[in-house]
Amino acid sequence: MEVINTIGRRKAAIARIYLSEGKGKIIVNNKDYKEYFPVGTLQYVVKQPLELLELSDKFDIKANLTGGGIKGQAEALRLAISRALIEINPEDKSALRSAGFVTRDPRQVERKKPGQKKARKKFQFSKR
Prior knowledge:
Elements: E1 4-10, E2 13-21, E3 26-28, E4 31-32, H1 33-36, H2 40-52, E5 59-66, H3 70-88, H4 93-99
Parallel strand pairs: 3-5
Antiparallel strand pairs: 1-2, 2-5, 3-4
């Protein structure tokens, strides 16, 4: 099996992964994923597609993450892993889709408008 390259995005985070056959090691920005994501919930988010298909010890993943925050990066990595698993076996797509791992979350931060305090919040109005 050749190396599979996919990309995942969430908010401002971009995850580029290289998936190959192996023993289940996940390397993120040249660190172990448990070191890069110290919070247990984020480690769980990263492993979700592999656990769902029971493939957590069959593939090695090398990921490059840029932009965004730690949660957005974890969810971008989950999307990239899901896309790579679908590329390997297209029959897994329905299981991953029903779990919600295939859909790219389109929500972005709304920009700040001029003459306002934030994107929607206005400066306090004073009548007198």
